[in-house]
Amino acid sequence: MNKVHTCHWPGCDRRVPPARWGCRPHWFALPLPLRNRIWATYVPGQEVTKTPSAAYIAAAKEAQQWIAERELVVENKLPRGQQRLGDQ
Ligand SMILES: [Zn+2]
Questions:
Q1: Which of 20, 27, 38, 83 is the most exposed place for a label (fewest CB within 10 A)?
Q2: 23 by DSSP, 3-state: which?
Q3: What is the pLDDT of residue 88?
């Protein structure tokens, strides 16, 4: 079973390494405090055991809420002014 892991950004189906939250542009579209929380709560190997910590789930959920609140979901777009971030 080799399940394809994709970006957690709603509507984005770009493939990313299992340890990554999402693709580069979308990851960097998240505010820094949120990214820090996801990193801080991430436990190596959780994508294998499928048992991420409650803290990680909470952080990931917060990211989804942040995206939903800004209505960025529908058109799968990045926040204004950040389109070029992560392109280098
Ligand atoms: Zn993405």
A1: 83
A2: coil
A3: 41
70 within 8 A of 79, measured Cβ to Cβ:
yes
**Separation of 20 CA from ligand 1 center, angstroms?**
11
Ligand 1 centroid distance, CA of 81 (Å): 17
> Could you tell me which residue, 25 or 44, shows the higher pLDDT?
25
Ligand 1 centroid vs 7 CA: distance in angstroms?
Answer: 5
- Compute, in angstroms, the gap from residue 29 CA to the centroid of ligand 1: 10
Residue type (1 letter), 80: R
Residue 25 pLDDT level (bands cut at 50, 70, 90)? very high
Rounded to whole angstroms, the Cα distance separating 36 from 27 reads 11
Helix (H, G, I), strand (E, B) or coil at 30: coil
| Spacing, Cα 13 to ligand 1 middle (Å) | 7
